[in-house]
Amino acid sequence: MSAPTLDVDPWHVREPHVDTGTLDVAESLFSLSNGYLGIRGTLDEVEPFGMRGTYLSGVYETHPLSYPEGGYGQPGEGQALLTVTDGTPLRLLVDGIPLDVREVRPEVHERTLDLRAGTLDRRVRWTTPRGTTVEVSSRRLVSLAERSICAVRYEVRALDGPAHVVVRSEVASGAVTPTGVDNDDPRVKDVLDNAFEPMVHACAPTGGTLASRTRRSGITVAAAVDHVVDGGRVSSDADEHRVVTVVAADLAAGGALGITKVVAHTWSLDAWAGSLVGQASAAVASALDLGWEGLLAAQRDVLDEFWATADVEVDGDPELQQALRYSVFQLFCSAACISGAPVGAKGLTGMGYSGHTFWDVEGFVLPALTLLRPDTAARLLRWRAETIGSARERARTLGRAGAAFAWRTISGPEVSAYWPASTAAMHVNADIARAFWLYQNATGEDLDDVGGLPVLVETARLWMSLGHEDAAGAWHLFGMTGPDEYTGVVDDNVFTNLMARANLRRAADACRRHEARAADLGVDHTETAAWRSAAAAVHVPWDEGLRVHPMNANFTAYEEWPFEEQRDAYPVQEHQHYATFYRRQVLKQADLVQALWWCRDEFTDEEVARDLEYYEARTVRDSSLSAAVQAVVCAQAQHPDLALRYLRECALVDLRDVQEGTAQGLHMASVAGAWLALAAGLGGLREDHEDLEIAPCSRRRSPAPPTTSPGAVRCCASRRPRRAPRSRWCAARGR
Length: 735
What we know:
The protein starts with 11 loop residues before the first strand and ends in a 5-residue tail after the last strand. A 9-stranded antiparallel sheet has the order 1-9-10-11-12-19-16-15-14. It has a 5-stranded antiparallel sheet with strand order 8-7-13-18-17, with no helix packed on it. Helix 11 packs antiparallel against helix 13, helix 11 (494-513) runs parallel beside helix 15 and helix 17 runs parallel beside helix 19 (668-682). It is α+β, with helices and mostly antiparallel strands. The radius of gyration is 26 Å and the shape is globular. The chain folds into 2 domains: 12-67 and 74-309, Beta-galactosidase, Chain A, domain 5, CATH 2.70.98; 320-730, Alpha/alpha barrel (Glycosyltransferase). The chain has 19 helices and 25 strands. The longest helix has 38 residues, at 273-310. Substrate binds at residues 359-360, 588-589. Keywords: Hydrolase.
């Protein structure tokens, strides 16, 4: 693991000594986002860096997908999030020597993310060859009140001697900013490295504007910048790729130069470049009208309101306290101002997974936001509902009825080139339907207000076209891949079957409540009766000898995995071919155990206990998604100590870089999963019945915990609230 060393503090994430060897992970950890705009936590002077990145949700480029062997129905185009115009650079020269922390060897170099203020602070102090001690301080924010705005207050102070200071402030278009693309296909790299075509640029005395358009997806982006300078001389210049503002000052001992830099970003699929430039310029004007202190105050007001309803208090475990607040902060920021776009698996914190959204957003992020920020959840659900046209088209390509939603996408169409872990993972459709249903159940809002009824109807139709009724009347799903990616393309995956059952029943219930609207969708009583009949006949495998549920047909007959021999060979997929482990009893992540949580009414307490024990011994958690699920079910089975261990693992996935993937961006499902592991796990919160349930897990009556796989551990209300109450957990007392 290559995580930076951080202080433990309840409201701050502080790196007291910035380590250039862990910059790539730190840039993700110190990312700032509002769901519309996201910026990685790079240094102000840019170099050195691991991955630069400024992102706008919904801004992507398409690229060709190649296949060694062709096949019907394979997606022909991929999509990738793009690095757009970067407004963070503030390059400093003191007496003609650039600030480069690899060379100046600072006496002080620290960064702090303030979870209440929503700002990233930096302080660096060094002595120049001339003998003057210079200190730079910066404070950066991505506004939660003015969605287009990133702003920074940058100050240079000569503490004990004179200094000639020059600051080169840049706004660099995506065409000249490193993309962060990691793809071996040269065609993809060429497309993404040359994604932007310059459109217009303009210069003003203290700033300027840029606009460009993606060559294939046709998205236009624009940025505007302006500066307020205290104590310096200012000049600006611009070309089609950059706006550069230079500020120079001669500082006496004790003198200071102050710069407030405001950058606005905007984008559109159909607006004219000049119009977008006007929007960005107006956003800058709005921010300047508020002023730096006004921007800080507005940021604090948004977060004060948020923390008043969403704070998590933990006694007895300061590290967990910090990690949970950090997770809740990043969860909120991932979608606070989002509109017409999804949350990606890495949010707007990095290029991991090419910026795609997956099933885990509906599975983890949306349920958490439904309880914490239902208005935000509604916007995400409306985006998903708007992609139903692409889902219907995909279903037709597959020869199925209804709608087959994409496994991975940015704008709606399927872009995964590996069908065994995408197209075969049809559970994504039930996961999406569940997110809509949970929103309606938890908030009491009308399902159709977020476009939910067509989603439930079309996914139910998909399941009917996928299912098969055998001669004995049992209903099966063949050739499916469940959540576990180490067991693919199987028959009767229990999680998938039970989620399909729930989808069918919920769709039928929704159509009963909205008969007129359902009729508009062509639904009649005969169709809903067929859904209920299929749901009742769903086959759920059972091993009578072991008294457990096989994860899928014949799973318990597979050869056991040699865990003791493979103790140091993790992740499994990086040490063994898929042909070796696809039919072995080893799980990348919770699968059947996830059904114990999401489909809890299908299992008795005894079945939960036995199933959990069986699969704990076979789950290696090579996926960051697993720990949250295992935390919840361990608490459900009254194993609070093990639940707490999994909760800590989930909450620290990024702060400790547990999966060694944080450099590519935060794991948003784990970010949300940490809150769910606490609330639904140790807190016993359930929102899937008529009434909200809260049944905290206690250590006082815990049976012996199940055995985990070797080497796998690496590190009450009766009515529905509009938002979940503040959570409190005592780690020392277990209650």
